């Protein structure tokens, strides 16, 4: 998969961990853009002594200053000296009024992103001042937090590799609620949304000048269910995430420690009320459990039907009747096997390779009570949706039984099953399945009046929307070839 560092990888002097650090930066800098009320652009040197824009993020707390995306473009001439000076000096730089126009006044700052003493990129912050007014305390705090994070980036202290990677549903954002702590974990500032989130958790009226750890633990009703990382998050000591639950309200918390080269001087804690999200997730889990239970009960009922057919076949006097009941029992057992597989997983997809391994050997053994039949399987079916797995299982079962009973006859031999997935010219995916035997060969396509082959043709054409062909084997026997479209 292409990444934003691909265009510069050949010429960039990246050392182990550098590229991953930049990806971690871009993965988390939406938070900085929201705090700074500014667009952020990531620059890296390119051929010809210029710079190229690798990434761009817009704030969700304010309007953007760039309505068009210029990622991949070279830097403007008037901006290049500022970025160049930040790159070479390793210090932040602020542009003067020469970047102001009659239409807008823009504050531009450049921050070199430094790791292990080496500048890896430069982040420029672009804030529109045309509608500026007296900044509120919230805006002042937000902008100070953004500056603190960018200055940590200049020292290689942020982003932190200890931060959990990967998405987590309900991860808090700046607009959801922000709390700033000092080094002792005392709240210096809490945004209105942050106070509201804690109020829903347990009726807290004010957070400022109070220990966030003491406030949080005082709201918990059951301390046995507390996440072990909670203490380190609410004191701002580690860049982790956790959740607290009280009075039916779930609160997601994320801490970002603020450090300089010597010590930790504070922390940011983002909080978000995720009660509704967790309620919906519980509903989904409950539905998944219900679906698995339904598959389990269907499997049990089908196994009961198969057992009844087996008992009935034992009482049959006619050999044709007994054989018919045994074939019906085998088909019911095949469908039950698919439902058993579905009852064991959360997905409605079936690992068909694991399923068919069991069924393939069983079908050959049941069809050959008086002879030795070897089975060989190659290729891969991959994961298939349940609506394809059930008819395909029945088709394979009938073809294997037919290969043993009619292809090998009463001789010992081998039945092979091969599957391959392929992508054709129009981009769609197809599955090719070949069932082979090394018997005497049918000489031509088999008769169409057999119940088993009628079932196969119906399932292949109607349920699977594919084709089926019979061909002579390479040396002996018969190859039955299925060509099926795969639906996602």
UniProtKB/TrEMBL annotation:
Keywords: ATP-binding, Kinase, Nucleotide-binding, Phosphoprotein, Transferase
The enzyme's E.C. designation: 2.7.13.3
Domain Histidine kinase positions: 293-488
Catalytic activity entry: ATP + protein L-histidine = ADP + protein N-phospho-L-histidine
PROSITE patterns cross-referenced by the UniProt entry: HIS_KIN (PS50109)
Xref: InterPro entries: H_kinase_PdtaS_GAF_sf, HATPase_C_sf, HATPase_dom, His_kinase_dom, PAS-like_dom_sf, PAS_4, PdtaS_GAF, Sig_transdc_His_kin_sub2_dim/P
SUPFAM superfamilies given in the database record: ATPase domain of HSP90 chaperone/DNA topoisomerase II/histidine kinase, PYP-like sensor domain (PAS domain)
Lineage top rank: taxon: Bacteria
Keyword Nucleotide-binding carried by entry: yes
Gene Ontology molecular-function annotations: ATP binding; protein histidine kinase activity
Pfam families in alphabetical order: GAF_PdtaS (PF12282), HATPase_c (PF02518), HisKA_2 (PF07568), PAS_4 (PF08448)
Name the record gives this protein: histidine kinase
């Amino acid at each position: 998969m292409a990444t934003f560092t691909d265009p510069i990888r050949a010429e960039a002097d990246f050392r182990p961990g550098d590229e991953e650090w930049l990806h971690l930066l871009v993965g988390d800098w939406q938070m900085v853009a929201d705090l700074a009320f500014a667009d952020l652009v990531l620059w890296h040197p390119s051929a010809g002594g210029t710079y190229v824009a690798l990434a761009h993020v817009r704030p969700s707390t304010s309007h953007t200053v760039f309505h068009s995306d210029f990622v991949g473009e070279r830097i403007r001439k008037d901006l290049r000296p500022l970025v160049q000076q930040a790159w070479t000096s390793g210090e932040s730089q602020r542009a003067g009024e020469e970047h102001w126009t009659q239409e807008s006044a823009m504050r531009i700052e450049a921050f070199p992103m430094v790791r292990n003493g080496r500048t890896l990129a430069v982040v420029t912050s672009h804030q529109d001042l045309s509608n500026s007014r007296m900044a509120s305390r919230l805006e002042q705090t937000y902008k100070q937090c953004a500056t603190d994070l960018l200055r940590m980036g200049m020292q290689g202290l942020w982003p932190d590799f200890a931060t959990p990677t990967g998405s987590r549903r309900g991860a808090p954002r700046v607009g959801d609620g922000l709390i700033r702590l000092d080094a002792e974990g005392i709240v210096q500032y809490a945004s209105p949304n942050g106070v509201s989130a804690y109020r829903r958790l347990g009726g807290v009226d004010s957070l400022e000048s109070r220990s966030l750890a003491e406030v949080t633990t005082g709201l918990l009703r059951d301390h046995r269910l507390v996440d072990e990382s909670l203490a380190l998050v609410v004191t701002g000591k580690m860049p982790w995430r956790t959740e607290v639950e009280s009075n039916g309200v779930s609160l997601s918390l994320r801490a970002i420690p603020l450090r300089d080269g010597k010590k930790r001087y504070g922390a940011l804690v983002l909080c978000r009320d995720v009660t509704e999200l967790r309620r919906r997730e519980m509903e989904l889990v409950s539905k998944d459990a219900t679906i698995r239970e339904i598959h389990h009960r269907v499997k049990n009922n089908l196994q009961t039907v198969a057992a009844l057919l087996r008992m009935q076949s034992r009482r049959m006097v006619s050999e044709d009747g007994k054989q018919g009941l045994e074939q019906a029992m085998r088909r019911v057992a095949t469908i039950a096997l698919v439902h058993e597989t579905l009852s064991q997983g959360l997905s409605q997809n079936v690992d068909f390779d694991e399923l068919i391994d069991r069924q393939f050997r069983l079908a050959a053994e049941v069809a050959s009570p008086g002879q030795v039949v070897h089975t060989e399987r190659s290729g891969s079916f991959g994961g298939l949706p349940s609506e394809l797995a059930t008819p395909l299982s029945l088709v394979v079962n009938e073809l294997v039984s037919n290969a043993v009973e009619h292809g090998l006859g009463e001789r010992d031999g081998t039945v092979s099953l091969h599957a391959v997935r392929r992508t054709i010219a129009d981009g769609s995916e197809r599955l090719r399945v070949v069932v082979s035997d090394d018997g005497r060969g049918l000489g031509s396509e088999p008769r169409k009046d057999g119940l088993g082959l009628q079932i196969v043709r119906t399932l292949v054409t109607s349920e699977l929307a594919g084709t089926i062909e019979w061909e002579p084997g390479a040396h002996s026997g018969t190859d039955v070839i299925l060509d099926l479209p795969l639906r996602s």
